[in-house]
Amino acid sequence: MPAKIKRGDTVVVIAGKDKGKRGTVRRVVNKFDRVVVEGVNMVKKHQRARRQGQASEIVEREAALHISNVMLIDPNNNQPTRVTFRRRDDGTMVRVGKRSGEDIE
């Protein structure tokens, strides 16, 4: 079965410290059911100096969220929606927004 959320989709966070924030999916980690969303779930990582003369630093970056904590934004009506699938006449599967009933993509 195809993925309900893919890289490049716009999603809204529905649970956690960043609830209500919108962002674009940068990466999907299928093995752990997680997604990395641009500008959401920012964490500080202490980066060690790699070479002599280079300074150590604290870098801020996005951490992965569980896929159940985000909801796809339907591009047809700009509202959060659940996703289902429909088989086209040619046999391919297409994502469908439950709220609008229209195809996504």
Task: Summarize the structure in words.
The protein is an all-beta fold. The chain is built from no helices and eleven strands. The strands form three sheets. It has a six-stranded antiparallel beta sheet, with no helix packed on it. It is elongated. The protein starts with 9 loop residues before the first strand and ends with a strand. 14% of the residues are buried. The model has no long low-confidence stretch (mean pLDDT 94).
| Major β-sheet strand ordering | 6-3-2-1-7-8
Global structural class: mainly beta
Low-confidence stretches: none
Task: Give Rg in angstroms.
Answer: 17 Å
Largest sheet: 6 strands, antiparallel
Quick check: average pLDDT?
94
- SSE pattern, N- to C-terminal: EEEEEEEEEEE
> Helix amount, in percent?
under 10%
How many helices?
Answer: 0
Percentage of residues in strands: over 45%
Backbone shape? elongated
- The first-to-last residue Cα distance is 16 Å
> How many E-type strands?
11
How would you describe this structure in keywords?
105 residues, mainly beta, 6-stranded antiparallel β-sheet, 3-stranded antiparallel β-sheet, 11 strands, elongated
